[in-house]
């Protein structure tokens, strides 16, 4: 769910401006999954732009407090959610922990890094939601550790139905600052794409796994 339309459009515009999001319907990218995609999103770029970084931090922190109540801990998911989570935790004056993509293969063998206790309330921070798989894997790790996951916040979502269903099934509410629909709306308005490219972009979102440029 997008938190607010005005901020969704602003974030979309900023992501396009700083080239954190690139749209190339005619020269698609290839994701790690093998999917062909007309969009590539790298929200790590937001960290290099102080005004964008500050706006994202403030809005995510606002969502956490208003929608989930101030938790005991903020958690980030490796790797993109770690710096964003640190910023949100700092804004709220809260402890921070993060979830590795895999169990550490040396030392203490941690999956969750930082100090926490079973029974604590936690809100998870992500930079991007695609299918939701890695996000929910991190959520499950927190639940397995006995923590109470109040919800998840993220900068951007592709808006895949599979992700919506996965979060619903896991009973984890999530809120994003912006999404694919608002991005495309803003991209047309700001003339980052042409009207005739809209059809390709819409078709990709319908069945991304089978999409090929025409």
Description:
40% of the residues lie in helices and 21% in strands. The mean pLDDT is 92. The chain is built from seven helices and ten strands. Strand 8 (121-129), helix 4 (133-144) and strand 9 (148-157) form a beta-alpha-beta unit. The protein has helices at residues 5-17, 50-68, 81-92, 133-144, 161-170, 180-189, 198-206, and strands at residues 21-23, 29-30, 36-37, 39-41, 73-77, 96-99, 112-113, 121-129, 148-157, 174-179. It starts with a helix and ends in an 8-residue tail after the last helix. The chain has 214 residues and is α/β, with parallel strands linked by helices. Strands 7-6-5-8-9-10 form a six-stranded mixed beta sheet, sandwiched between helices. Strands 1-4 form a two-stranded antiparallel sheet. The chain has a two-stranded antiparallel ribbon with strand order 2-3. The chain has a single domain (5-206), classed as Rossmann fold (3-Layer(aba) Sandwich), CATH 3.40.50.2020.
| Structure summary, number of beta strands | 10
Q: How many domains?
A: 1
Q: Which percent range fits the helix content?
A: 25-40%
CATH architecture: 3-Layer(aba) Sandwich
What kind of assembly state do the chains in view correspond to? single chain
Give the termini separation.
31 Å
What is the helix tally? 7
Structural class: alpha/beta
Helix and strand succession? HEEEEHEHEEEHEHEHH
Backbone shape: globular
Work out the radius of gyration.
Answer: 17 Å
Q: How are the strands ordered across the major sheet?
A: 7-6-5-8-9-10
What are the low-pLDDT stretches, counting only 5+ consecutive residues below 50?
Answer: none
Describe the largest sheet. Answer: 6 strands, mixed
The mean pLDDT is 92
CATH level-3 fold name: Rossmann fold
CATH class identity: Alpha Beta
Task: Tell me what portion of residues adopts beta-strand conformation.
Answer: 15-25%
């Amino acid at each position: 769910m997008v938190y607010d339309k005005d901020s969704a459009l602003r974030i979309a515009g900023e992501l396009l401006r700083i080239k954190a999001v690139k749209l190339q319907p005619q020269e698609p990218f290839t994701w790690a999954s093998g999917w062909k995609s007309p969009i590539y999103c790298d929200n790590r770029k937001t960290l290099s732009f102080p005004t964008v970084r500050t706006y994202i931090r403030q809005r995510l922190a606002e969502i956490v407090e208003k929608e989930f109540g101030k938790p005991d801990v903020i958690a980030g998911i490796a790797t993109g959610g770690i710096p964003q989570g640190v910023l949100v935790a700092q804004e709220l004056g809260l402890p921070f922990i993060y979830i590795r993509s895999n169990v550490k293969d040396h030392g203490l063998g941690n999956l969750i890094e930082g100090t926490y206790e079973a029974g604590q309330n936690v809100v998870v921070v992500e930079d991007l939601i695609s299918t939701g798989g890695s996000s929910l894997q991190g959520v499950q790790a927190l639940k397995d550790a006995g923590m109470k996951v109040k919800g998840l916040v993220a900068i951007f979502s592709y808006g895949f139905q599979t992700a919506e269903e996965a979060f619903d099934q896991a009973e984890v509410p999530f809120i994003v600052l912006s999404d694919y629909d608002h991005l495309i709306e803003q991209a047309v308005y700001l003339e980052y794409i042409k009207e005739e490219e809209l059809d390709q972009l819409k078709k990709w979102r319908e069945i991304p796994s089978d999409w090929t440029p025409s």
